Amino acid sequence: MKKHLLTILLLCTCITFGFAQNRVITGKVTDQKDGSPLPGVSVTVKGVTGVGTQTDINGSYKLSVPATAKILTFSFLGFKRAELAVTGSVLNVQLESDSKQLTEVVVVGYGTQQRQAITGSIATVSSKEIQNTPVTTLEQAIQGKAAGVNIQANNGKLGQGIKISIRGNASITAGNQPLVVVDGIVITSSDISTTSAATDPLADINFNDVESVQILKDASASAIYGARASNGVLLITTKKGKAGDAKVNFTAQWGTSNPSRHRKFLNTTQWLALFERAAEGAGKQDFLNQDPDNPDYATVEDAIADEKSFVESRFTRYSAGSTDWSKTNTDWEKQAFQHAPQQQYDLNVSGGSEKTTYYIGGQYLDQTGILKGNNFTRASGRLNLTTKLYKNLDVGMNFNFTHSLNKRVDNDNSFGTPLQVVALSPVTPIIDPRSGLLSGTPPGASSNYPVYYNPLINVDNAYFHTNIYRTLGNIYGNLQIAKGLTFRSEFGIDQTNQNEDNYSGTATFRNTSQANGFGENTNTSIIHYTINNYFSYKTLFGTDHSLDATLGTSYEYNHYMGNDIQGTQFPSDAYKQIVSAAIKSGGYSSQSEYSFVSYFARANYAYKSKYLLSASARTDASSRFSKNNRYGFYPAASAGWVISQEDFLKNSKYLSNLKLKVSYGLTGNAEIPNYASLGLFSGDAGYNGVPGQRFYQLANPNLKWETTAQIDAGLELGFFNNRLTATFDYYRKNTRDLLLDVNVPQTLGIATQTQNIGKLYNQGYEVTISSDNFVGKFKWSTAFNIAYNKNVVTNVNKLIIGTNDLNRVIEGQPIGVFYGPEYAGVDPANGDALYWTNTHDANGKVIDRTKTNDYNKAESVVLGNPTPKFTGGITNTLSYAGFDLAFTFQGSFGNKIFNSAGQYMSDNGSNGFDNQTLDQLAYWNKPGDITDVPEPRLFYSNGANASSRYLSGGSYVRLKTVALGYNIPKNILSKIKIDRARVFVNAYNLFLITKYKGWDPEVNSDYQASNINLGVDFYSAPQPRTITFGVNIGL
Amino acid sequence: MKRFTSYIKLIVGFGIVITAGACKKQLELKPFDYIESGEAIKTEKDVQSTLVGTYNRAGLSFVYGGDIFLMPDLMASQSVIDWSGTYQELTQMVSQQIPINNAYVNTLWLDAYRINNQANNVLANLDKVTAANKNSVEGQAKFLRGLIYFDLARLFGKSWNDGDPNTNLAVPIVLTPTTEVNSSSYPARATVAAVYAQAISDLTDAEAKAGTSVSFYANSYSASAILARIYLQQGQYAKAAQEATKVISSGAYSLVANYADEFPFPNQNAAHVDNTSEDIFAIQVTAQQGINDLNTFYGSADYGGRGDISLKSSFLNEFEEGDDRLSVYNEDSDGSLRVDKFDNLYGNVRVIRLAELYLIRAEANSRLGTSTGATPVADINVIRNRANLSSLTSVTLAQILKERRLELAFEGGFFLHDAKRLKQNVASLPYNSPKLVFPIPLQEMNANKNLVQNEGY
Questions:
Q1: How far apart are CA A668 and CA A634, in angstroms?
Q2: Under a CB-based contact definition with an 8 Å cutoff, are residues A848 and A837 in contact?
Q3: Chain B positions in Cβ-Cβ contact with residue A477 (cut-off 8 Å)
Q4: N or C: where does chain A have the smaller number of CB atoms within 10 Å of the terminal CB?
Q5: How far apart are the first and last CA of chain A?
Q6: Chain-chain contact of A447 with B116 (C-beta, under 8 angstroms)
Q7: Cβ separation B91–A941 shorter than 8 A
Q8: What is the percentage of chain B residues whose pLDDT exceeds 90?
Q9: What angle do CA B144, B148, B149 make, to 5 degrees?
Q10: How many CB pairs under 8 A join A and B?
Q11: Cross-chain Cβ contact A747/B32 below 8 Å
Q12: 3-state secondary structure of B54
């Protein structure tokens, strides 16, 4: 079949336009902007039909014309049509671009296309918009810059997990992150941190090497990636050299970060008063709840006195043994943070000859985190090289190596994470006067002082270093087989070697339970091979028809190998490697692999650049799926109508572009564990040194892909020669056969099975507007985007899925909806926390809504959506007389956040001695008090259960980035032989507008973040506010 | 150029062949870390490994890693301990207000059925075991299954003496290994009587088959000991005394010399310690395998625990002067009074020990006016003498129960289980309050429509 197709394709190219002519004209067509040759420009004779040709790859043409020919017409999509009089036998032309929007070459799956010819939905972020942003990872740099692409960091730790949702969340159990493709090669983009907190695999990519990021959103654009495209595709293209003199570019920037926000906790006076009151509340309950036949207390006063003496003994304990409790007033929250300097150096060289071009880039980045102990460094190098071996063959490579070192801090749910320090009592001094050491440091009274393990002890006594060595690259060959027909073969590799080395010294005993140190060392190695082979064919039939087609195969193989060793009993803290551990307390080695075999094809057809048609298909097979359902087929089709090319609009003064487009197609999701369809036993069930095995996983011999059918309808508009442009997209993604970890009766000895059950949809709108408000000396342009998405789970077999406090999956609601008891405030009579009963009838309708103090009587109801309804951003770019300024606001609206730590930090002193947020002072004190904060009752958990009490709105607008620069005038520079020089100030997260009371509304606590667990705050660090100064020099 | 084209054709062809030809082989990838269920149990050794895996599951923290004893005690020891823990799920037990979504209750349920399924995998493959070992393997698997059903019945069903155990519901009984989810995967709850009967039947088989050799594995005596505990809980005193006697008179176990020796903590260094001569069955904990969750909650930070539980000093007043058992209750370095029975981070979790059987027999004989094995006073004096207390000449039921409370405090969930058996109030609640029975976990209710929820939830 393939052979036949090749023949057909070859035949097509043989159709030429042979007429009897008597004059030959040759020439070259170039781009006015940079002089680069323009291939594919159609050249016709004005007034004569049937005579024409198009330029070749070098922009050259040769055309025989009738003797009568007077004027040649040069037309090319996205360029202004040129008409030139025939004056001799050579006619060279420079075409002027019609607008930057339309001529832009957009990287698509396995090829490129011109913006105007695209019928799919693709958002683009260019290098200009992201370069030198003072952040760690690419995703942070593109936040707020692409419509329908919602990027959210878990917290403010460096290099930590980031969630990217493109057009909503399409899966409940399988992956929800887009496929990431760098220079045509699928890369490993899953988290490989071995702690429960994810790290960001894209942190190994220096985004200053990135030329553009294309985000494939609809099925037309993404179905060519088949079974892994349901969550969209991120196509990252790195910078290439251009023929010409070598260009050297050097940038250095230095700066510092601070927490973008603080949270207020009780001071000593407030804390003492609140816990005295909590003792009283508890005493009253002790008295009420005692055994009537055998009472412990004769009077309520006795019970209160007992509780007070207990609480006051704790005051003394937490005051480092001092009975002068109010002597100290420590603001522990501030102690979690540090002065956080950063520096970054980028150097790159690019250039080339006619045959060979190169780009060589290098970066060193050293960022200190705002949390004590957190630091990230990255050193990376890149070489992109291409050379023309023969006239019709070019070969090249894109090669990147990176070393990153992330000095991580503990997960949000660990006593060792810096921000859990807020739980410590304000009466506790930072330095324990009894020992002269940080409070809680052994030796000394460290076991129950302070109230919890002091995480600041970790700063000098524990570390967790993640070193990643990553090699990412491909080699390729491009062969022009015949005119318009090329064959590309590429081999890509993504090799990640990660070493996680951690040690907790003797002083961390209270956190680790290890008196003589604990060490762990984990190696993770992942290799991912890709082999792509495909044909591309581009041609014009006559002057009106253009066709491009792609046909190919792809094979991918991924192999994970890991090993780990743990040790305890170190001779002293000076020894930190496991070689010195007297007891090797644990370890493992582990491997797994998966593969994909794929076939894909695509054809784009355009008639008169007006009517556009596109179709693509991919067949994927993966080792991950059961034998019965190993293959998946993903077709897509789209159509576009460039109305502005029609005669009735062609000459419109105002409207310069109007395009309608529609697409439909299928994509899949295969992001499940590698052996999910198999029934498995595990050999990890030894007992007292005797080997044992255990039942591990239930087989599902019919497991198959999750499929998403997406329809997209869009409109593109341009006014005033495209000075003002706008796009509008409507989409609906219906996902079926959800790969779901379905709760099965646990009486089976297992809690879940991966099944294809259920349906959900995402539906939404995206609007972008960009405008060149001023052109000329003073330039001002604005780019605005906003997206609305609605996510509804329509069928999960009536299951209620979810494992944390409130996030659930329920039919008729978005994924992860907050679902639980509804808080009803405080009983003015007695200070009890109240909940609405919300009793349902058999149809789920609420039939009784009364207040109860029995948490168990409060039925669960929908409390809010953790995912924003609207997300968007607005970027303004201004320049005048050498100054340039760009700033981006980013916003997220309509979601709720659950403070899962509310049960500790905002529980009116009812669940332990944790210091409380300031708002808890409004507690109920005496009958008649009207408040939302219940009576403090130490250890009686009054109102501390998970409920809507700890939910709040999470909408925000943030000044995400500001870049202000000044270009030093050329006349000064020329004296010192410098081409360009710019000094700049960059700012990140300069300010935030929100009603959220926590540290940061951009949050999802790292240790529990998942597809379902969304919008949860748990001692999560705020985003940094960073300001850097820098200089950019070009030679 | 010609040569070149053919070269390219070769590459193209190669690429396509690689991709297509590799297809079959490259798509059938087998796991490295696991084996497929069909390959797992083929030989006697595989069955043995599965049995060891059953012990491993029994040692999970929410079951016999300790929590299955800790949780009932937390529900009933309000007058004895101060709870200062921050795990909501446990605080809810202390305050006797357990929501149906309590994650600890859910995990206990899941882990219990993990033991059950694992035991069922052993029992379904006995045909692969040689005759010489068959009884021992069957007996041990049934011991673990009987043990967990008894505890499930006590925690999720009404007390035996509360209403009619033939109509009160306990938990579903599942006796076959799981291979798929089908229509029989949604069992209803069996009655309290049926679950007790299943436990007794399993343990009786275990008693007959597990053999008498003493090691850290369960044997015939382990089964007798648990049967004695069950019969006492049911008020079948004669049977309780008989089963207790089987263990005591076997001579296979003996009380350690000093009470504190039963809770060994060598050199104040956490390390695995073998069973004592008094331990009849204990879950083994080593630095590599298993967990002692009683250490987590009772142990102070001095010993690697959270120290969430401290002791009210009034509890110490219950002891007579000179009682050696007071030696396991001490102030930690911060002056909090602690239970020191679980200070060893890698200490075994005792499931049953010999002293309990003397106490069971004494109580049963006392109630029946019999002297099966020994007189009540003789049995009580064994316990008292070991605690450095003088012998009594006669003993009342109240004295026996007091001795039992002091001897076994914090070890087996007896604060709750005995209160129910003896119809005593638990703080302000009567013994039969529905709040003293666990709810059927919400997740399980949602996954299995054949279940009905307990009263009061």
A1: 7
A2: yes
A3: 11
A4: N
A5: 53
A6: no
A7: yes
A8: 82
A9: 115
A10: 299
A11: no
A12: helix
Best mutation target, A110, A623, A687, to test chain B (most B CBs within 10 A): A687
Q: Which residue of A has its CA nearest to B17?
A: A553
Shortest distance between the Cα of A985 and any Cα of chain B, in A, equals 46
What is the 3-state secondary structure of chain B?
CHHHHHHHHHHHHHHHHHHHHHHHHHHCCCCCCEEEHHHHCCCHHHHHHHHHHHHHHHCCCCCCCCHHHHHHHHHHCCCCEEECCCCHHHHHHHCCCCCCCCHHHHHHHHHHHHHHHHHHHHHCCHHHCCHHHHHHHHHHHHHHHHHHHHHHHHHHCCCCCCCCCCCCECCCCCCCCCCCCCHHHCCCCCEHHHHHHHHHHHHHHHHHHCCCCCCCCCCHHHHHHHHHHHHHHHCCHHHHHHHHHHHHHHCCCCCCCCHHHHCCCHHHCCCCCCCCCCEEEEECCCCCCCCCHHHHHHCCHHHCCCCCEEECHHHHCCCCCCCHHHHHEEECCCCCEEEHHHCCCCCCEEEEEHHHHHHHHHHHHHHHCCCCCCCHHHHHHHHHHHCCCCCCCCCCHHHHHHHHHHHHCCCCCHHHHHHHHCCCCECCECCCCHHHCCCCCHHHHHHCCCCCCCCCC
Per-residue pLDDT reduced to its tens digit, A558-604: 999 999 999 999 999 999 999 999 989 889 999 999 999 999 999 99
Distance from CA of B239 to the nearest CA of A (A): 31
Instruction: Tell me the domain boundaries of chain B.
Output: 44-254+262-312+322-447
Record the pTM.
Answer: 0.85
Is A131 near chain B, with CB under 8 Å? Answer: no
Q: How far is A372 from chain B (nearest CA, A)?
A: 25
| Cα B403 versus chain centre, distance | 23
- Does the CB of A592 have a partner CB in chain B at under 8 Å? yes
Place of tokens 């762990």: A520
Reply yes or no on whether the pLDDT at A447 is more than 80. Answer: no
A296 close contact with B: CB closer than 8 A: yes
The yes-or-no verdict on residue A3 having pLDDT over 70 is no
The pLDDT assigned to A16 comes to 35
Q: Does domain B44-254+262-312+322-447 have CATH number 1.10.730.10?
A: no
Confidence check on the interface: ipTM exceeds 0.85, yes or no: yes
pLDDT, tens digit, 9 for 90 and up, residues A625-674: 888 889 999 999 999 999 998 988 888 889 989 999 999 999 999 988 89
Instruction: Pick the residue of B2, B101, B123, B265 with the most A CBs within 10 A to test the interface with A by mutation.
Output: B101
How are beta strands B81-83 and A1016-1017 bridged, if at all?
Answer: unpaired
> What domains lie within chain A, and their CATH numbers?
2-97 (2.60.40.1120)
Residues B136-146 pLDDT 10s: 999 999 999 99
pLDDT over 60 at A620, yes or no: yes
